[in-house]
Here is the input.
Amino acid sequence: MLSDWELWACANHVLQTHGDKAPLHVAEQIGALALAGDEAGIRTWQAIAERIVQLSSKASEGPLQ
Here is the structure.
């Protein structure tokens, strides 16, 4: 399993790379890993997905004041 810092970095990278399509990218990754039976990979991408949601919600709140 990746460290917390690495998971946040991955989430940020996925958001920067895929933008609005980030959830679709995550779903595709999880689907491929499920077909391969990679439970650890699925858990990793689920953790990344949780962080993407948090980053996205903070971005929609606007700049910090």
Summary: The mean pLDDT is 93. The chain has three helices and no strands. Residues 39-60 form the longest helix (22 residues).
